[in-house]
Amino acid sequence: DQVTYTLAITAKDNGIPQKADTTYVEIMVNDVNDNAPQFVSTHYQGVISEDAPPFTSVLQISATDRDAHTNGRVQYTFQNGEDGDGDFTIEPTSGIIRTVRRLDRENVPVYELTAYAVDRGIPAQRTPVHIQVTIQDV
């Protein structure tokens, strides 16, 4: 919440007349990776036509991280096959989700995906989000 603190320190003696002097101390707070990324929405929904060409944009997800510098930089990813068996891809920096191939509503009418926002801290923290993509019939 605060990167620096400035303290005014005054020293006084007990003499007559009393003498005093003031100096300032600046304390710099180093960030640690103590915040996980947080998505702007608790879940995302998208709709796409089954005749959309490969690499068509479906939707964009977004997350923020309260940490500073690399601890707060977020990338997006699918992990452990939670990308609709390879039917979707996600751009790591923008969070745009795209189709990888033509989709077939008769085979899969609704996809349930899980994407992750991962910060660049050490160790990295990650947060999942649920994404539902509905395929429109043609």
Task: Tell me what the structure shows.
The chain contains no helices and eleven strands. It is mainly β and 138 residues long. It has a single domain (38-136), classed as Immunoglobulin-like (Sandwich), CATH 2.60.40.60. Strand 10 (110-119) and strand 11 (126-136) form a beta hairpin. The mean pLDDT is 95.
For CATH, the homologous superfamily is named as Cadherins
Count of extended strands: 11
Strand order of the largest sheet: 4-11-10-7
Distance between the terminal alpha carbons, to the nearest Å? 51 Å
**Highest CATH level, the class:** Mainly Beta
The number of helices is 0
Radius of gyration, taken over Cα atoms and rounded to an integer in Å: 25 Å
What are the secondary-structure elements, in order, as H or E?
Answer: EEEEEEEEEEE
Main sheet properties = 4 strands, mixed
Q: How does CATH name the architecture? A: Sandwich
Q: Total domains, how many?
A: 1
What's the CATH topology label? Immunoglobulin-like
Helix vs. strand class: mainly beta
Brief digest:
With 138 residues, this protein is an all-beta fold. It has strands at 4-12, 20-28, 38-39, 43-49, 57-60, 63-64, 74-78, 88-90, 96-99, 110-119, 126-136. The model has no long low-confidence stretch (mean pLDDT 95).
